[in-house]
Amino acid sequence: MEPIMTNLFLFMFALLLAWLVEGSFEYFVNPWLVLLEGKPPLDTFVPKVKPWLACAVGVGVVFLTSLDLLAYAASLADVTMNPILSKVLTGIIIGRGANYVHDFWKRLKLPDAP
Q: What is the model's pTM?
């Protein structure tokens, strides 16, 4: 497969995963957190825990699917990276959502990108 198609498929897969993580978080996790928002000791806790939960879901999905954006980028630069660290960082990117993945991909200067 041509390198440009490989890059496109990797980007589309990462975007799809980020979209699914973002959507599933909104539908399955957020309703439970909304129930806790009106409780006095949890009022300040709930807004702080949402990004961490989304990050954990993103990292979990990345480990389950073996997607590794940073290892791919490192291989383009002929650099080796710790596989666990690169998957955790990829999970953080995926956990941020589809817009963040798109922005990350735009900033990543691939040598064979149009």
A: 0.73
Query: Residue 105 pLDDT more than 80?
Result: no
The least confident of 6-10, 26-30, 69-73, 103-107 is 103-107
The three-state (H, E, C) secondary structure of the chain, written as one string = CCHHHHHHHHHHHHHHHHHHHHHHHHHHHHHHHHHHCCCHHHCCHHHHHHHHHHHHHHHHHHHHHCCCHHHHHHHHCCCCCCHHHHHHHHHHHHHHCHHHHHHHHHHCCCCCCC
Structural domain includes residue 66: yes
Q: Can you tell me the distance from the alpha carbon of 61 to that of 18, in angstroms, rounded to the nearest whole number?
A: 9
Structural domains counted in the chain: 1
Q: Is 34 inside a domain boundary?
A: yes
